[in-house]
Amino acid sequence: MSKKSGIFAGIDFGNSNSCIAIYKYEKVEVLAGADGSRITPSYVYIGENGEKHVGKSAKNYGHKKPERLFYDIKRLFAAKTSDQICKKYKNQWTFDIKRDTETGYCNYNIDGKIYTPEEISSEVLKKLLSYVGEDVAGVVLTVPAFFSTEQKNKILEAAEMAGITVLQLICEPTAAAIAYGMEHSYTNGEVLFVFDIGDESFDISIIKVVNNTNFEVIVLGGDSHLGGRDFDGVIIDWMLKKLEEKVGKNNLKKLTPIKKFLMTEMAKEAIVVLNNNESATLQLSEVHSDASDVTLTRTEFEELSKGLVLQIKESIVQILKCRALNQQEINHVLLIGGSSKIPIITKLLKEFFDEAKFSKSCNAEELVAMGATRLAAKLGKQSTRSDITDLVYKDKISLNVGIEYADKNGESMFKTIFKKDTPYNQEQVIEMKTTQDNQKECEIALYEGLYDELEKNTHIGSLKLINLPPKKAGEYSVDVILTIDKNGILEVKTNDLNCAVQYKTQLLQKRKT
């Protein structure tokens, strides 16, 4: 084995917090910043002179001028102003969002200057790299299991801006399972239920382990738009109701960015307090001088959150049902992500699984980065340890991938090419034929989603073939080869090198990863 030079790392880039680990001296080491913390807030503050602050210092500056503080970065990857997610959080955000006129994507706006979420993300990634103190030869980046093709491409763009060589993307639950195996030897054939609830989403992966080094995702579930931020939201709504009772609705119509930021931070802090206590005090007097401080009990919080918990419960039921799995077949339950500490989440999972199966000794906020680093060590040929060199994993796509086609009535329909839970590194070939005499071009539209109806799924790109040879209708055909690559990203090519290919979107361009 020829060992590659340089440091190899794993990065868990989170919506709220991020973490980096490296592989050195045959072990995984989670790195800390100058403040001694191994968790870095995914916040970027841009000052009036253009200076940038990242992490805790960004949040500190943001307390004074929150309109200059950028966060919720992962939520905004490939998000459009018309999307439900933007409508949902627009009134809570302290920063200004501007729509890209060409793509419709959300961008950050400050001082008349536009910053894409990828640009802001790259600053967080650069900060994490600075902890290494050496040249980083390659990185494995983690992504939520329900990240779309668009979102995966966005994080790759951010990494490129940060000067990172991305070896591979890996789903967060899979990375956590790999890391957990470093501390707990699995028995051959054991099944893991990985529940990952971060700030912006929650993922469920059921993973089978073979010989402690082979990890196969059986099935995926979850919700890309339900996470810890939503639990913050129910407390913010509760605070607004209490404020309205005290000062009237008209006095709350135009909350300043500072007040919005303060309420968001108060909600987050209240959840942390309620994780270990029966009540938390929220200082509404800091939001409005005529308001009084209020107490929120854990029981009240759980009542406010029951709608969210019901959604999570339905996802758990669905994922167990789709593979006809029962609770007894699950050997380990891994809880990861900052919001996994919320008692009502643990209480819900105890309805399904014996508490003895719950992971006890793992660090929920570092496990994902550790698993990614283990894979980076393998890809970078940094280890002689068999648990690294023999590491194999099989991730699966979380969304159906397909094309638009016209039915016999001329109606646009969605045809699935790759079904949800298809493993990575798969290929399908579809034949395209001309439908008119001397047709000069043809186009295929590609979609991704979980719905049968075309319009409910996301258009991720179109492949256009031009300069077709002049022939009668149906005489010319071309094979279009669709591939799910090692990162779970769709790639497209054709077998006819003589016809020109135009991509109507950059989403389908092959990246060197």
UniProtKB/TrEMBL annotation:
Family named by the database record: Belongs to the heat shock protein 70 family.
GO terms of biological process kind: response to stress
Coiled coil ranges (UniProt) are none
The family database entries (PROSITE patterns) matched by this protein are listed as: HSP70_3
Does the record bear Metal-binding in its keywords?
no
Which SUPFAM superfamilies does the record cross-reference, listed alphabetically?
Actin-like ATPase domain (SSF53067), Heat shock protein 70kD (HSP70), peptide-binding domain (SSF100920)
List, in alphabetical order, the Gene Ontology terms for molecular function in this entry: ATP binding; ATP-dependent protein folding chaperone
What InterPro entries does its record include?
ATPase_NBD, Heat_shock_70_CS, HSP70_peptide-bd_sf, Hsp_70_fam
Origin species = Panagrolaimus davidi
Keywords annotated in UniProt: ATP-binding, Nucleotide-binding
- The answer to whether the entry has keyword DNA repair is no
Cross-referenced Pfam families: HSP70 (PF00012)
Q: Which domain of life is it from?
A: Eukaryota
What is the designated name of this protein?
Answer: Heat shock protein 70
